[in-house]
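Table S2 (text version). Query chain:
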Amino acid sequence: MTRVLRLAGFNLVIAAAVLALKLGAWWLTGSVALLADALESVVNVAAAAAALLAVRFSAMPPDANHPYGHTKAEYFSAVLEGALIIVAALAILREAWGAYLAPQAPSQPAVGLLVSAAATAINAGWAWVLRREGKRVRSPALLADARHLMADVVTSTGVLLGVGAVAATGILWFDPLLAALTAANILWSGWQLMRESVGGLMDEAVDPPLLARIRKAVSTSAEGALEAHDLRTRHAGRLTFIEFHLVVPGSMSVDDAHVICDRIEAALKSEIEGATITIHVEPEGKAKHHGVLVL
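Corresponding structure-token output:
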């Protein structure tokens, strides 16, 4: 089992444990804000299960029907997570409205808040681990979960403070207000997550800093060529696809042009983990006098 699969499996276990703690906090207090927090954790469990399946599928090697591999499967998981977040937010708003119409004081607030605080601390630590490892292995599914968990930590912290304020002041409308604010926050988180994931499915180009690194690697390793143009890039999960046309002198032999291509590929792969490179070699008459100039 790869490290990514192990992380995804452990992520599901953590999500289930945090959900149990948050449901316990709600059961102890009856707070609708803590119920809202627990409902978001239901989404975490569903998203963690989807991420595990997506990571497992994306690890499959290329085959006849999927010659570019299966790495885009992780984007589907991230889109699903964003959709589930939005559904959870709508459910929270429904509960908040009901609590506003018939407010109730939380019972056993101290114990409930302690349990919820423990769940929030677990989420914060695990989100940090997922973000670090997700960046290292370039997993959209793990990074999506990390981002969602961090949003969960922020809202949970606000809920803890608010429920504590309700218990201290007796102002009951604080509770549904905090639930509604929690819903608004996770709606924004879900929208951002879906937008970024759909961008991956739509083959958006790499971000400007990475594009600059690609151009520099081509420019400094293509000695003997004249220029590189029509550079195109895209991400597919952990893979980065790079394509461009390389212009060489018309008198250059195929062997010499191949040596240049090998050198460029080696430079790009040392700079960008998971780079998949396609180079189309052209004679100097095809030069466009723009793109990447060879240093």
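Notes on Table S2: Residues 208-293 form a domain with the Alpha-Beta Plaits fold (CATH 3.30.70.1350). The chain has a mean pLDDT of 80.
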